[in-house]
Amino acid sequence: MLTDAMQTTQRIGQRVWMVIPTHTTRHLEACLAGIAAQQELPDGVVLSCDVAEPEIDAVVDKVWEHVRKVLGERTPGFVQVSRAFQGEPRLNQVRNNGIRAVQEQFGLDDSDLVLVVDGDTVLEPGAVAMHRELAREGSDGRGADVVIAYRVNLSPQQTEHLTADQLLDGWGTPDDVHALINDAAQASLANRQQRYERQQRLRAGRLTRWMVKAHKPKIIGGHHSVKASALRMVNGYDEMFKGNGCDDDDLSRRLYMVKPKLSVQIAVTKIHAFHLWHETRRPWKPGEAPDHARFNQRDREMRAAPGLDNPRDQPEVKMRWVGCELGKA
Fold first, then answer.
1. Domain locations along the chain
2. pLDDT recorded at residue 281
3. Of 238, 218, 224, 222, nearest in space to 294 by CA
4. Which superfamily does CATH assign the domain made up of 4-321 to?
5. Phi and psi for 60 in degrees, rounded to 5?
6. Measuring CA to CA, which residue among 289, 275, 280 is closest to residue 245?
7. What is the pLDDT of residues 17-68, one digit of tens each?
8. In sequence order, which residues have a C-beta less than 8 Å from that of residue 285 and are 6 or more positions away?
9. d(CA 99, CA 93)
10. CA angle, residues 98, 101, 106, in degrees to nearest 5
11. DSSP secondary structure string, 73-132?
12. Helices H / strands E in the chain, number of each
């Protein structure tokens, strides 16, 4: 739980806990270094690994030492959790492992916001602040239970120049951010925002809700935030999903099953995240996803099984505090 020393990372009002799932060191330095550029810091960070590799530990220790030099006493508490690879990617279980670590090490109130960002993604400097603000003051006055954001896919050339050193050395001016969003990317984000808002309006209509697929407007797994209360109602992420594809669609659909309806904010154009280039293993078509058949089951229930409260069998999940002795007092 939080120690006295960790209170320096706390903020008045909406608490935000960042959960970063990963299985590799690829782009991890940049992802973590980007935290130092945030205008408002998360209250704590959990890196949740689908593997147990010393190489990841070494990268984490190296970059977080530099983050601490930049942020000083403002540095948020940082916990790393990992367990042995299970022979198949289990991204949803890794996400839940991260949330369980937040509950155990920081304490997770129902009103807290869990911000999930993939380890190959860099957030723009105002991202955490905007997630926090939307959760605190939604358009309906109660604050968003779910913030649906998106990302800008960077080219290999752009990725090459967005290094951890640059992120730690004052990156994050409006010109820096705008340089990564060309006209085509801006138009694509605007179109997606409009499409999601249209889907949201149709979903809200008694006579038009049938016109929208059960998981639309959809959450993108690599960048979204959900109130802890909502995650608990649906029992987190479904840990039977593996590989890439349909895992985030499944979360979207189950969140839309919650009654009374959750407050959802569409923030595709409001919060920018930059996905660093790499070759992808994601299926080209939804039907090629490993668990597409599970997602299509008509009798899917709102609560995941196994999920946040009842994990799928896995080896011991090991946990360590990075860069300090906090949490051991």
1. 4-321
2. 66
3. 238
4. Spore Coat Polysaccharide Biosynthesis Protein SpsA; Chain A (3.90.550.10)
5. -60, -50
6. 289
7. 999 999 999 999 999 999 999 999 999 999 999 999 999 999 999 999 999 9
8. none
9. 10
10. 125
11. GGPPEEEEEE----SS--HHHHHHHHHHHHHHHT---TT-EEEEE-TTEEE-TTHHHHHH
12. 11, 11
Given phi > 0 = left and psi -120 to 50 = alpha, else beta, which region is 300? beta
Q: Round to whole Å and give the CA distance between 244 and 92.
A: 10
Burial of 201 (0-12, 13-18, 19+ CB in 10 A): exposed
Beta strands of the chain (E only): which ranges? 16-22, 44-49, 77-82, 113-117, 121-123, 146-148, 152-153, 223-227, 264-266, 273-275, 318-321
Letter for the amino acid at 3? T
How many residues comprise the chain?
329
**Residue with tokens 């949740």, as numbered in its chain:** 48
Tokens of 219: 């959450």
How many Å apart are CA 218 and CA 60, to the nearest integer? 31
Residue 101's pLDDT is: 98
**Distance in angstroms (rounded) separating the CA atoms of residues 270 and 148:** 10
Q: Answer for the pair 58, 193: CB distance below 8 angstroms, yes or no.
A: no
